[in-house]
Structure formats: C-alpha cells, structure tokens
C-alpha cells in the first residue's frame, strides 16, 4: 500500500474539522419565544431550547450564528475563554512540558468561529467586549505553546518507544495523525520484512533430504535392557 495515500485517507482538511465543530454547543440569550408546548426546536441532532426571552440556553454553533445574524439572540463567551482562565492555562502549559491542559476538544475551531464569524457585524466585540484583543492573544499563545510541545514529543520518538500526548484537541490530533499513521506503516513494513528474513534463514538451515540408499537402509533395532534379578 502506498503510505502517502493511506495517510490522506485518515487526515481531514481544516475545513472538514471546522465543519465537525459546528455541532459544538454554546450558550445564547434569546430575545424571542417559540409557540410550541415545550418552546424548543427539534432538529436531527436533538432538541434545543427552551427559547424564552432573557433565558439562557445552549444551541449548536451554526444555530447560534443563524439566530444572531437575525438579531434574535446574543452569544455568550464560553467560560473557558475568560482571560483569567486562559492566563492560567498558558502558565500551566509552559510550566509542565510533559502535560497538556484539558480544553474543549474543538477549542481552536470554537475560538476561530467567535473571532471571525460575523466580523463585519462586530460579533467578536459583542461577545468579548474590551477583552477581545487579550483573549485573542492568549488563545494564540496557548496554541503555539502546545504546538511546540507536540513537536518536542514527536522528536522523542527517535529515542523512546512511546510518547504521551494527552488532552490533544481535534485539530492538533489531525495535524499529527499523518505522522503516526506513516510511522505505523513503516513499523509494519519493517516487521514483515524481518519475519520473512527469519523464515528464509530457518529454511536454509534445515537438514538435506535423505538419499535413496539412506532411505532403503533398514532401521536399527534397539535392544531393550532387562533387569537381572
């Protein structure tokens, strides 16, 4: 199998990873209500709501943006995107080279969504207020710090049999997946070649077949020893 084509089958494009992240939930504050018994939206992926004025609820990112563009809600910044929390995460990432701090699986895509979606309508400013620039900087520094740690961990594979990369995000995993699948393909290929070499070596050390004269020679009769009383 071609290693490169095998890797491409397992690696998603950034746009595809971003598409998966659109189903992540985010908190909104609607300014409308729905005239249904439960005041909810029923979608293929579930039921969302209840939608009542000034009452928080969680919806997927794609729904939040659609409602926000129609001026039907405001979007609240996730708790993990508070500047004080991000500052703590950054300090821990820098002080613990062997560990990755737990963040939402799609933290990069969620942040990118809030920073760029609806930019012309000033969504980032509405969500983060005066802390927008600081939040952007902290998220960017966290991403760069984690990326450096990932590269350092991968470099250790030359000296170690295993590397611990825990709490990686979807985009981070996607970036290293090609490396790991390629490494596993190479390991499998070398292991197969080694097994074949062993089989060939064993085959060459076997005893040669008997000649016709040796096969015709009668078998030697062994005398059974008896005990003399």
From TrEMBL:
One of its GO terms (biological process) is double-strand break repair via break-induced replication. Residues 13-75 form the DNA replication complex GINS protein PSF2 N-terminal domain. Residues 203-229 are annotated as: Disordered. It is found in: Nucleus. Keywords: DNA replication, Nucleus. Residues 80-186 form the GINS subunit domain. Its main location: nucleus. SUPFAM superfamilies: GINS helical bundle-like, PriA/YqbF domain. One of its GO terms (cellular component) is GINS complex. Residues 220-229 have a biased composition (Basic residues). Component of the GINS complex. Belongs to the GINS2/PSF2 family. This is DNA replication complex GINS protein PSF2. It comes from Picochlorum oklahomense.
């Amino acid at each position: 199998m071609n290693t490169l084509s095998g890797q491409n089958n397992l690696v998603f494009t950034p746009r595809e990873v971003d598409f998966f992240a659109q189903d992540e939930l985010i908190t909104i504050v609607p300014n409308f209500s729905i005239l249904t018994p439960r005041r909810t939206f029923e979608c293929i992926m579930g039921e969302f709501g209840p939608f009542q004025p000034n009452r928080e609820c969680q919806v997927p990112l794609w729904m939040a943006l659609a409602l926000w563009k129609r001026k039907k809600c405001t979007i609240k910044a996730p708790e993990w995107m508070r500047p004080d929390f991000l500052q703590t995460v950054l300090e821990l990432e820098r002080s613990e080279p062997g560990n990755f701090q737990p963040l939402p699986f799609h933290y990069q895509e969620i942040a990118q969504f809030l920073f760029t979606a609806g930019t012309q309508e000033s969504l980032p400013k509405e969500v983060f207020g005066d802390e927008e620039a600081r939040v952007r900087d902290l998220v960017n520094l966290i991403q760069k710090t984690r990326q450096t740690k990932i590269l350092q961990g991968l470099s250790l594979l030359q000296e170690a049999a295993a590397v611990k990369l825990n709490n990686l995000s979807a985009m981070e995993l996607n970036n290293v997946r090609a490396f790991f699948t390629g490494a596993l393909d190479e390991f499998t290929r070398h292991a197969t070649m080694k097994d074949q070499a062993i089989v060939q070596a064993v085959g060459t050390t076997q005893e040669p077949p008997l000649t016709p004269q040796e096969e015709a020679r009668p078998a030697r009769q062994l005398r059974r020893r008896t005990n003399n009383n």
